[in-house]
Amino acid sequence: MQRHTNDVKPQDKVFVHVDLAQRGVGGDDSWKSLPHEQYLLTAPKYSYSYTLSLLDSNN
Fold first, then answer.
1. Alpha-carbon distance 25 to 31, whole Å?
2. Which of 40, 44, 4, 3 is nearest to 25 (CA)?
3. How many Å from the N-terminal Cα to the C-terminal Cα in the chain?
4. CA-closest candidate to residue 22, choices 1, 38, 4, 33
């Protein structure tokens, strides 16, 4: 679902969205072309890791 800024209500929460990779939005035209080869995700499997750390608000 598309959202517009007036559709988003303030919340007392923090959201973290972590993406491994993005493939690109398309080729040289706005219809059936794929992204250029260097922007394709062709590996059979991807993995990654990350660490979230809380910061002391007194620092």
1. 11
2. 40
3. 40
4. 38
Q: For the whole model, what pTM was predicted?
A: 0.43
What is the rounded distance in angstroms from the CA atom of residue 13 to the CA atom of residue 7? 17
Distances (CA, A) of 9 to 4, 6, 15, 19, 52: 10, 7, 13, 23, 26
Q: Please, are residues 39 and 23 in contact by the beta-carbon 8 Å criterion?
A: yes
- Tell me the residue length of the chain: 59
Q: What is the per-residue pLDDT across 11-56, written as a single tens digit (0 to 9) for each?
A: 899 888 888 887 777 778 777 788 888 888 888 998 989 898 888 8
For residue 46 the two structure tokens come to 């991807």
The two tokens of residue 24 are 């690109």
